[in-house]
Amino acid sequence: MSGKIERFEDLTCWQSARELVKLVFIHCRKGELSRDWDMRSQLKRAALSSQNNIAEGFCRYYKKEFIRFLDIAQSSAGEIQSMCYNLEDLNYLPAETIEEIRSKAAETRNRTLGLIRYLSTGRKTSDNTPVE
After folding, report:
1. Residue of 55, 131, 41 whose CA lies nearest to 83
2. Cα–Cα distance measured from residue 86 to residue 46, given in angstroms and rounded to the nearest whole number
């Protein structure tokens, strides 16, 4: 990471998650997906979970809690990657659109995992160290 991160909005994983939310919400209005309330709802909730857990974790006082919320966020992005197979199998969206969502979810997950690795191996004094 270059420079000091002072706001969750500065985190590249949060920025990627925000783009993922926008992408998911836009495409949930289209095609067969727009008529499947359960699938649409789960997809939207997973995207929101990824973005919001990054922000909530950042706002926690202890590094261990931040990492726990980041883990939830990366898992939610993984959930979206999995759901893309259902979208594909059910022909709910064009293949290019599904790949765009899958790719953004993978990017979000990878960036979040990168932050987890950084926090886990960085200047570590204890798991109850306040986030700086």
Report:
1. 41
2. 14
Residue-wise pLDDT tens digits, 91-114: 999 999 999 999 999 999 999 999
For 22-58, the pLDDT digits (tens) are 999 999 999 999 999 999 999 999 999 999 999 999 9
- At 130 the three-state DSSP class reads strand
Token duo for residue 4? 């000091």
pLDDT given for residue 3 in this prediction: 67
Q: Write the DSSP symbol of residue 90.
A: T
| CA-based radius of gyration for the chain | 16
6 class by beta-carbon count within 10 Å (0-12 exposed, 13-18 middle, 19+ buried): exposed
> φ, ψ for residue 79 (rounded to 5)?
-60, -40
Burial degree of 110 (CB within 10 A; 0-12, 13-18, 19+): middle
Task: Write the pLDDT tens digit of every residue in 63-83.
Answer: 999 999 999 999 999 999 999
